[in-house]
Amino acid sequence: MATPKKTTSSKSTTVAAPAAQKVGFFKRILKSFKGPEVYEAQKSRSFWAAAGELLLVTSFTTLIFAVVATVMFTKFWPELEAKLADVGTWYPADLVLTVQDGVATASPAEPYVIPLNELFDEQDGATPSISVIVDTITPFTVSAMQEYGSGIWISRDAVAIYNADTRKIEQHAWNEFGDFTLNQEMVETLTLKAVDFIHGIAYTLIAFGWFFMSLAITAWRLFYLLFFALVVQFIAWVSNAKSLEYAQAYKIGALAFIPAIFITTVVQMTSIWTGFYGFTFFFSLISAIFVAINLKREKA
Fold it and tell me: How many CA atoms lie within 13 A of 180 on its CB side?
């Protein structure tokens, strides 16, 4: 009796290629310095993933400068506060200036001179001679102000200020300001309110500055990548690496920007001691170096 032959299935078994291992954000940051496999995987990532990663890194490094600014402001605020508060003390106690219907009047005998020398620090052993002339009896004329030789003249119908930059006298009629009365108490009150306002808004300005600077710098870098992608393609060509499409080169450039951001941040933070601030295209050169290091070469 014939034994039936065993038949083997003609179906072939295919083994699936192992899935690419997902790299976390912080590991990707480290691998951006030396990680050819991460640069290779960057080709298939979306534009938004690359842009978002660049925004996060930029925000972090910008935050460092915001923290430094906060610490410096907190440290020097008491001294600055004292100087700002002293501004109100220059106004004489016996001077009451009243403006009504576009005409100014003053309480003391005129002309009245208010020296402002104490508001300015001495430079090279000389203190600038700066003063305000109060003469509300005389209407404003250019010749009269030139005769007084003062930078600021409070006249009967206007306040005149000499602009040293343009070398011209700027006249502002009292009608522009409306009716008011100014005395030492009011000046000191306004000065203290201004000091409180500056202190209250300073930290908010630093926070908003950090937010908007992060967005602005990231937007500029994404725009600059439009040109740097061509550099990435050129590096791939001369180094016998795998050919890159423009979109792939753009995303690889975004990854190479990350180590350049950290390096240039360190350079800027230490420049006060080293005196080195970088040079033209310093950021681009660093980025190009990391592209060259991490691009995979074609096998011979």
Answer: 9
